Amino acid sequence: MKTDELASIHLGKRVNGSEEYDPSLLVAIPRYENRKQYNLESKNLPFDGWDVWHAYEFSVMTENGLPITRLMKIKYSCESEFLVESKSLKLYLNSFNMSKFGKNLLDCLGICKRIIEKDLSEKLQTKVEVNFLENDCEKVKIFNNFENVINFIDEAKLTLNQFKEAPELLEVEKTSEKQCYYLTFDSLRSNCRVTHQPDFGDAFIYYSSAKHIKEDSLIKYLSSFRSEYHFHEECCEMIFKRLYDLLDENDELFVCALYTRRGGIDICPARWSKNCVVSDVFELTDLEKFARYGIKQ
Length: 297
Fold this sequence. Notes:
12 strands
């Protein structure tokens, strides 16, 4: 089945869900179909990275009927052959709502962690990590040191009129020496490739190069996603690949997209070049926060 057909198994249909735990609800989407459009070979990816999902409404019960609700983090490698389709994940997690596991809170969550890790790992054919956080966790920005964040676009001189992904908008100039650039863009918008509903997020980009990607051209390029129809992970990889192709072979590049949640779940993919040591990009405190997948306790 093609990607859109797989994604449509649940999308656009009335689905009552399940009153009992049901792993058959999960749908895996192959990554290769979109990657081949941008000359990305799954066996020779130019980046490392992970996909991180935050499920804010996971709920389950103990054996004596005590309800438990937690924020769940799900993480797996971008090297996996598949990604999980979002509605199928929501339906699957909702199937835990009336299910009962364990004699107490910790026992229940421990059982759920093991079950969900097993189900997702088998469906996606890769190692999946699951953890729980308290629901009052606060989302943090990747680049906390805003003295290093480049933010000097003259909006009055900026005209944007292309809203389908347009890499030709990107402009590069040579500099006298290698420099580090930290950039943020808080108005990223793309659309679900199946439902066509809008998705909003923040983009964080770091690169170290003797080439300079002009900031106004980067704003134009990121804005060109506004009428693009792709999954979150695909958008992150597209942005990475377009920038990667402009830079030199040994340059460092990091791209992260923190999307806002829709339907109680958000997706936060991150990709970085294989020579990029993340601990060198961020200060320790920022790295610790980022290691928690964009969430701090």
